[in-house]
Amino acid sequence: NIIDKGGYQDSLLDFSISDLSLTNSKLIRTTETGRFSNLKISDDGSTVYFYENNDSENKTGFYKADTVTGDATLVSQAQNIFLFDVTKDGRKAIFSRKNSNTGFNDLVLYNYDRSEIRILQENYTGIKYQFLNKDENIILYFSNKDNRTNIFKYNINDNTTNPVTNLSPDDKINDFYQQGKFIFYRTQKGLYVLDFDSPKNLKLVVGWE
């Protein structure tokens, strides 16, 4: 999909989304200032999430737009909003925002079907949160705990967190991504791959020591 800024209409800036053939496009109306950024489209192309900045209140509006109707809905308005990931159908999103009561940044889950925003982790410390490819009820991320950097899985249904990897203190994960059922992660020693269903079966793909 391709996103393009459109023109001003009724003092609002539009943007359009289209497929790669440029034959099918849809106009999305922004709802406030038109200063939108950080757009992310769901894999099925049905939904686009974006931010709009409101400098007067020092807050960011976080919106979900339907690419069929062109309607944009405000999900949240807060400081320090950051979108991590959306499900393939765009009906769930993981993002963070500042908690006005505590002053810390919380990790939250937006569920469109339930019209619900739920705090998953208060004052979160993880990095690169993402839905597991095969199960949107599992969230993957990596974090440093007890002087060890590992990939963890968070189960949305029962609020449990468990490690996926068990690395030594000498191994420091600095990035990871998914491809199919495999998880690739990079340390200072090289690139590794593991099967989520058999996490002990890991293989060094590339080494640079």
The percentage of residues in β strands lies in over 45%
**Shape field:** globular
Instruction: Tell me the distance between the termini.
Output: 39 Å
Q: Report strand order across the widest sheet.
A: 4-5-6-7
Alpha-beta content class:
mainly beta
Average predicted local confidence, pLDDT: 84
Folded structure, characterized:
This protein has 209 residues and is mostly beta strands. It is built from no helices and 19 strands. The strands form 5 sheets. The chain has a 4-stranded antiparallel sheet, with no helix packed on it. The radius of gyration is 19 Å and the shape is globular. The protein starts with a strand and ends with a strand.
Core attributes:
disordered N terminus; mainly beta; 19 strands; 4-stranded antiparallel sheet; globular; single chain; 209 residues
Topology:
Elements lengths: L1 E8 L2 E7 L6 E5 L6 E6 L5 E8 L4 E8 L5 E7 L3 E5 L5 E7 L6 E7 L4 E6 L5 E6 L2 E11 L2 E8 L4 E4 L11 E5 L2 E6 L2 E6 L2 E10 L2
Antiparallel strand pairs: 1-2, 2-3, 4-5, 5-6, 6-7, 8-9, 9-10, 10-11, 12-13, 13-14, 14-15, 16-17, 17-18, 18-19
